[in-house]
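ok so i was messing around last nite and threw this chain in just to see what happens. nothing serious, just curious
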Amino acid sequence: MSGSPPASARHVARHVAIVMDGNGRWASAQGLPKVAGHRAGALAAKNLIPRAKELGIKTLTLFTFSKENWGRNPQEVRDILSLILDEIQSSESELQRQEVRLKIIGALDDFPSDIAEQVRLLEAKSAHYNGLTMIFALSYGARQDITQAVSAIGHKIANGQIDPDDLDEALIAEHLWTAGLPTPELFIRTSGELRLSNFLLWEIAYTELYFTTCLWPDFTPDHLNAALDSFANRKRYFGKSRHV
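result:
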């Protein structure tokens, strides 16, 4: 956005998490099938990479496909899966050029084996890149994640691997899909909806929230800049007293 200070001159959100909402509504408004909206949304995500790096963002997490999305119209699900596969097959050289590290959170085994295998392969190939970490949430749900973490811890307690007295927030975090990843500082949701939609519920306890009416396919690098401007002007207290 014109007139914004450079990243070095302001407080930057190092980890930004985005709910990319509004693809279907965008397609309907254009008189196009929903899959066209998802394609446009994928392009919008790609277009953010250079600006994210320029602004000093180190980690970008995108809510790509939720656990609940499996309940959508079967044809739409097939179209989304086909698009995911296409994007995987065409993105390797771009990830290499941009030095983007790919990371997946979610129940990847829910996907057909060809998709799951190619995603894991691309994740492994990009593991040494350090330009930007892009986290894709695939078949992801925060409640499901917390549930599987508690289940894993419960089994370890039953097997004597963990002392129940050692159970704390850090131990739970170690068993989440996001283990080892930085906490999001800024949460963005597009399309005007004011919900978290089961996204990173544990991780965003103190994350700054930003909502915009812009539909995701129309979300540009300048919209990202506006969200970061909003973040830069906020005071973060983390439950501590405000000093007037």
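not much to say yet. The two ends are 31 Å apart (CA to CA).
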